[in-house]
Amino acid sequence: MRSFRPILLLLLVLLGAVPGRQALATPVRIKDVTDVQGIRSNQLVGYGLVVGLNGTGDRLNNSLFTRESLISMLERLGVNIRDQQQKLQTKDIAAVMVTAELPAFAHGGSRIDITVSATGDATDLSGGTLLVTPLMAADGEVYAVAQGQLVTSAFSAKGAAASVTRNIPTSAHIANGATVEKEVASQLSTRRSIDLSLRNPDLTTASRIARAINRSMGDIARVDDPRTVHIDLSRGDAVSTLEGIEDLLVEPETPATVVVDEASGTIVMGDNVRISTVAIAQGNLTVQVTETPEVSQPAPFSGGQTALVPRTGIKVDSGAGKRLGILREGPSLRDLVGGLNALGVGPRDMISILQTIKAAGALQANLVVR
Fold it and tell me: Which N-terminal residues, if any, form the signal peptide (predicted)?
């Protein structure tokens, strides 16, 4: 089993907890840890057709929605093939879902990126062209129109007995592939107050943000809750106030949290994690069964027969050689990691130890298991 020491040492470097020096919080800008409430992007979605595929599109006999979409599109263009629809056998067209994100303050005529994903049994969208596709928001209104040449950054090739696929050929991207047709009204300049929303809610961090704003801009900020800092704009406008506070530095408070991902065996600890003194004994029962059959060969002219004689070896390791160890209370993450690392266990066993320490009430942190 590989040692967990390299992972923990890397964690120490990332968190700044190197031997001989206490980790210090790094100041960050207010704009990097908060959002302005009411200023957000909106998700758009649309259904369209991709044409120009090299025989890698939907099979019309299987994808009925692609067939009906193609017939409806041709009818809108003045081509009536309702009576001949059974003869449609093209494989150069595919039905797709188009998604995009409409950013805040996007004005009519602005360009936004779009993502195109196959909905039928198309195998590759490379080289296709998306036809005009309206993009709607949750209110059913059309806010953008998409069209353009698809880029998949994928490769797919196959033969009779083998195939090679790189990336996802049924998902494509078009940079600046949609034009904004309708704006989302947002009058920032007419607001009399704004609320800053913390991305990681914490009362201490919110208080530090309010104090930093009040020192720089006057007494205009107050903390409403661990997520919200209210700013009064009675003595100024929103644009100049936000410009003045965006680059103010604060030290965010990080909660004591241990995050465990059992699927990958990953453990991440925050700098404020503390542990009370506990005694730990960790061991596993291992039973190893080895089969080494031998061939029994009789002497010449003895009249005997060659036979396969089984030979089974069984080894049991109950972990009797491992002793009870004491993990003492550490004042820093470095000492905590050093104590856990001294046990000489791997990531999987470390997860079990942390869960057991938490159950014993000795882990002074929130344990999150994913």
Answer: 1-25
CB 253, CB 360: distance < 8 Å: no
Q: DSSP character for 21? A: S
* Separation of alpha carbons 213 and 34, rounded Å: 13
| Each residue's pLDDT tens digit, 221-267 | 999 999 999 999 888 888 888 888 999 999 998 888 888 887 777 88
Q: How far apart are CA 78 and CA 238, in angstroms?
A: 53
pTM listed for this prediction: 0.68
Q: If 0-12 CB within 10 Å is exposed, 13-18 middle and 19+ buried, where does residue 127 land?
A: middle
Q: Report in angstroms the alpha-carbon separations of 317 from 127, 287, 288, 320, 325.
A: 60, 6, 8, 8, 19
> How many structural domains are present in the chain?
3
Confidence class for position 329, pLDDT limits 50, 70, 90: low
Q: Mean pLDDT score of the chain, rounded to an integer? A: 80
Question: pLDDT at position 340, please?
Answer: 64
Quick: pLDDT tens for 80-125.
877 776 667 788 999 999 999 999 888 999 999 999 999 999 989 9
Q: How far apart are the first and last CA of the chain?
A: 23
- Looking at the structure, tell me whether residues 46 and 149 fall in a common domain: yes
Cα distance between residue 167 and residue 260, in whole Å? 29
What is residue 350's DSSP assignment? H
- Whole domain around residue 101: which residue ranges? 42-180
Q: Are residues 220 and 267 in the same domain?
A: no
CB 27 within 8 A of CB 247: no
Report how far apart, in Å, the C-alpha atoms of 157 and of each of 118, 165, 230, 312 are. 18, 6, 57, 49
Q: Quick check: 174 and 151 in contact, CB under 8 A?
A: yes
165 touches 102 (CB < 8 A)? no
